[in-house]
Amino acid sequence: MNRRQRRALGETVVSGPSFLWLLALFAIPTAALLVTSLRPADIYGGVAPGWTFANYLKLLSPERLGVVWRTVWISAVATIICVTVAVPVAYRVALCGPRLRRWLLLLLIAPFWTNFLIRVFAWKIVLGPDGWFRLALLKLGIIDPGTMLLYNKYTTLMVIVYTYLPFAIMPLFAAVEKFDFSLLEAARDLGAGRSGAFFKVFVPGVSKGIAAAALMVFIPALGSYVIPDMVGGVNSQMIGNLIADCVFVGRDIPAAAAWASLLVMMVVGFVGLRLTLVTLGGVSLKTRGADR
Amino acid sequence: MTGFLNIEGVTKRYGEIKALDDVTLEVSKGKIFSLLGPSGCGKTTLLRICAGFEDPDAGRVILDGKDITHLPPNRRPVNTVFQNYALFPHMSVRDNIAFGPRTAGRGKREVDSKVDYYLDLSQMRSHADKKPRELSGGQRQRVAIARALINEPQLLLLDEPLAALDLKLRQRMLVELDDIHDRTGTTFLFVTHDQGEAMGLSDTVAVLNHGRVEQVGTPSEIYEAPRTGFVAAFIGDTNFLDGVVVGKVDDEYSRVRVDSLGRDDLLVFNDRPLSLGEEIFLSVRPEKIGVSSRPPAPNPKVTVMVGEVEEVIYLGSFTKFWVRVGAQRLSVQKQHDIFILEDKPPSWNDKVWLSLHADYGYILDNYQKADEALLPLSGKGAAPGGAVL
Amino acid sequence: MRHNSRLTWYATVGTLLFFYLPMLVVVLNSFNPSRYGGSWEGGLTCRWYLALCHDHNLASALFNTAVIGVGATLVSVVLGTLAAFALHLFQDKLQAAHGAMVYALLGMPDILIGISLLLLFLSIGLRLGLFTVFLAHVTFCVSYVAITVGARLQSFEFSTIEAARDLGAGWPRVVRRVILPQIAPAMVAGGLLAFTISIDDFVITFFVTGPASTTLPVYLYSLMKHGSPVLINALSTIFLVVTFVIVTLVNKLTERKA
What we know:
- The complex is a heterotrimer of chains A (about 290), B (about 400) and C (about 260).
- Chain A has helices at about 1-35, 55-60, 60-95, 100-115, 115-125, 130-140, 155-180, 180-190, 195-205, 205-220, 225-230, 240-250, 255-290.
- Chain A has about 290 residues and is mainly alpha-helical.
- Chain A has one domain (about 40-290): MetI-like fold (Orthogonal Bundle), CATH 1.10.3720.10.
- In chain A, helix 5 (about 115-125) packs parallel to helix 11 (about 225-230).
- Mean pLDDT of chain A is about 85; it is low at about 285-290.
- Chain B has two domains: about 5-225, P-loop containing nucleotide triphosphate hydrolases (Rossmann fold, 3-Layer(aba) Sandwich), CATH 3.40.50; about 230-375, CATH 2.40.50.100.
- A six-stranded mixed β-sheet of chain B has the order 6-7-8-3-9-10, sandwiched between helices. A five-stranded antiparallel β-sheet of chain B has the order 13-12-11-14-20. Chain B has a five-stranded antiparallel β-sheet with strand order 15-19-16-17-18, with no helix packed on it.
- Chain C is mostly helical and about 260 residues long.
- Chain C has a single domain, classed as MetI-like (MetI-like fold, Orthogonal Bundle), CATH 1.10.3720.
- The chains are: A mainly alpha (about 290), B alpha+beta (about 400), C mainly alpha (about 260).
- The interface between B and C is medium-sized, with 25 and 17 residues.
């Protein structure tokens, strides 16, 4: 049919360019990453022919596993902190009048627009050996001269929270804006206390936003590289650092690919988990007859 | 075929479903023709095929002798007024209306003078430089119509033209559309699910159901002489009587037994030749049944029945009654053309006399139980609905 | 409501302080004459800002960043707009895969995109430099543009396209006079977003850049790792001020439209 042919041509022309570009520069390289991780390294650290699991076996050392665990732990805790802070903040901003709300949002989102390196660097300055904060704590006698505030996993955690908190606030704010606040009044009318209404009506009502916020923090946090590199030090490396090390320092491309593939699988795994939970949640809600 | 617009054997399938099934219609030049039917009956699909946005799987569309079935929309002498008007939001009223002539490459002076003419025709002169979002619903519709008519199409298609308007505006626009049609003489084909629009505006109505044409005729033919139970029930309200012919009175009239009413002497006009023992279905419009609190004067052509009032709804210029006769509940409508203060109208549980003149029922060609579901009150005590003109 | 109210105000103000104090420290420190920050001696100085002006590496990094920013934005706006239309108009398996790629790209941590592109370039023997950075930037910008334009398409009246056809317009005219004018603001917004993401990108650029194609963020990183901290303070302050001005402007512009 002429119309059908024309439509097929139209689809090819319109979707072709970006489809091919993304295929060539995203889908295929990501697949290639997985393939490379299964290849041995040659003497120059490049990719040699053949197949092997050696790269993955290297991951099983306690050191390496420690890195994996630390990455997951830091990301998870950061996510929890970010979401816990973002919910009341989003709530507060949504309840403000329109003018104040615009300005508050502007102030909260502006950090997102500043350069990420600068934000991390700012902490390096503040917590550095000559930083005011440390010097102040020293004067107050809270810490010893030998203590470094930088270069440990708690600093990494805090800077990750600092970096990704705007990412948590944004989707949560979007969800809170859509929330029907009269539901809270209805809950109070039916006898719920203030915190009862908050936890039983508000939080479930913005659960989609919470899930989105959690994902917006957790996934990028898993892939952190710059933050542990600049403020984490050698003892709190995350998977991202290992990937970079393998590429630039250790010169072992297949090993880097293995770490990267592990990260891919973790990302895909967590996203898949969330999707399954969402569909299951949707299914169980339907069977229960509720409609949200 | 002789019509100005001929739709011949058009069929359109979407997967397993037949949106249109061998539809054939003839539209006369300069007339207003409407496609009326419930949602999903295929009327919009047919309109889009005429406009050129869909291709039929079978059949042809012939306009003024030319086969336009496969012509792209921009090359047909056909213009459409879309349901949501589809005005270009980034252009002013003037630019919207001018779009057609400018695309056709007409000179600036010609375009400007034509646009001015149509601005006046649609009474939008003072709003010419506004953007669509600054206009009301009725104003947008006028712009949409002007934008289409300025191209002097051989056929103007309108998709549910009054659907987005509120009741009062709808009634006004009905008159305006009629007026515009008279002034330009363009052939109108429009699509609606609202019987009020169709009946009020059209010269000819085609009733569609599930992709098939149920009946084509003038509004009064459709209303008074419905061919099928669907047409009878979809337009307005009616009573369905299921009877068996038990006797012949003369060449023109027969006697029918209707079990649900508990009568075997219903007088019926032979709309078509009837045979003894034949099962027939009658459609009787509520306003055709007389109702009174006293026995009426006898009339050989009138069957009188006694019933009990079950429901009364007073609507100002008329009252609707639901009267139980035997096992059936009849819907009866009484116009208040006389008002006598002392007269007590029939009320709940009153005994009333119903008069059914043999000429006022119509024998249907086709009837299905499912058709009853279209009635405003399908005997189940639901609130009355249906369009009230 | 009152009890929660106070708590939520504390959270909000606390968050704002948390966000801005470190940056304030950086800004203040940029006027600190001492070389390594920390102790403050000798009043305020602008010499670090002046030093920046003489930094040739900085100038070339700025240039590279701008060139790639503009280039990647232009290409990604075209690709991204087309992608948005494809995803919205054609709902079939091909577009499902297409959409999966667009969204997956946004969700992937930068380091994964960086390393996969590096491997790609190495395997096909493409020399790392401005071109590879350009290719990388277009790749992630396409998604942002597609999402931005895609959001506009949700409320786009496609019947205006049919109306234009009905009134006699051929496809070129429909695109030029009906489609583009309506989506132009979204394309601009997408382009601005892409530009911002591009000039800000570090990790991906770091992985695919060559020796002579440093961009501003990469240069910043090298300063932070090896260079004098005070230059960074000054540079950072400039960044912060510029960003703040842009964000305020954008806010004012969108406020007026609403």
